[in-house]
Amino acid sequence: MNFNDFSSPAFFENPYPLYEKIRNAGPFVQFGPNAFVTGRMLIVEALLRDRGMGKNYMPGVIVRYGESAPSQPVFQTLSRTFLMMNPPTHTRLRARLTKAFNGRQMTRLKDIVESTVNRLADRLAAKPEFDLMTEYATPLPVEIICGLLDVPIEHGTQLGDAASRMVTAMDLAPLSDALLRDANEGAQTLDAYFRAVVAERRANPGDDIISSLLATGGEGGSLTDDEVIANVILIFTAGHETTSNMIGNTLLALSRHPQQLAALRREPALTSKAVTECMRYDSSVQMVVRTALEEVTVGGVTLAPGTIVFMLIGAANRDPDVFADPDRLDIERADAGRALAFGGGIHFCLGARLAALEIETALKTLLERFPDLQLAELDRPQWRNRHNLRGVQSLPARQHVSPYVSPYASPFVSL
Question: For the domain 3-414, what is the CATH superfamily, name and number?
């Protein structure tokens, strides 16, 4: 097993056959010098809870890119985020971020999400055909996070593009030189933009997450500008592709399972359960990484200090030892909530509540406002060539069905 196994067109189209092979091969599969992969739910759950497993970001970068890689701007930016840190630094940063997300601006969370979803739906209402990814799923989390950070929505497209380029550096397989340059440029664009915003917000604080992070004192202590900038970039990035891809994956999964979709249309109260099951079935987050900070034994295997483990969330979420008939989509599955779409342990996704609300509201609004909506029948949609984040590039749709019956098969299926 090597990096190339995760870079084939077949893998990007459907990673689950490879995941099954990895689960069947054992609790851990050798992946490289001092590096393993695992796709078993019980192993992943145990590792995420074990305080002996933590973040040691740069060694993982070196494994993939060589000894000189840590000097690259994108890896420098990512290394300063609380996502890549261990206690007590992680505890201090997360405390401040948690406080920011629980501040007064979050009391408006539901209204912000609903108004943004309906504004995007209004734009679609006048169009007979549109792309649900580029015109709905992608701008939704960008506009919401721009509102929470109090930055102009019109800047969201440029920032979103930069974020997309930056996070490719988190993929399992190494990037080409050209893509790594793009990732560096994305990181530098975000750093320059938010560095200017932080300077302005220090002088003129407002009622937003950035201002809350800059506030002195309180639980976790004050943060430096570099800490604020890096973690604002993380907030923007984490709230971008993970959510937009999950909206797309949810719509695609339901369109491919018309009986499940029909059940959801009959009973909209199932929306939350449907989203939870879709996150288990085809999560946008496919992988997380941890390093053994000390000797750790799990699944009968002892990991030496410094061992890097790539944990395949997508594989764990379809582990037949945990989920009955795991390759079947069932929006009323009782144990879907056990899935690891938001990670686990001390690094459980800080924005999980916001992401779930966005996805649920996006799905419910779409089904309510567009009762005759049809998606193009995508037997082989164009998946993004990503390892850690899974999502489609486009979802063509139309909202009016012509009374004319074509002698040719329609490329659309009802949603």
Answer: Cytochrome P450 (1.10.630.10)
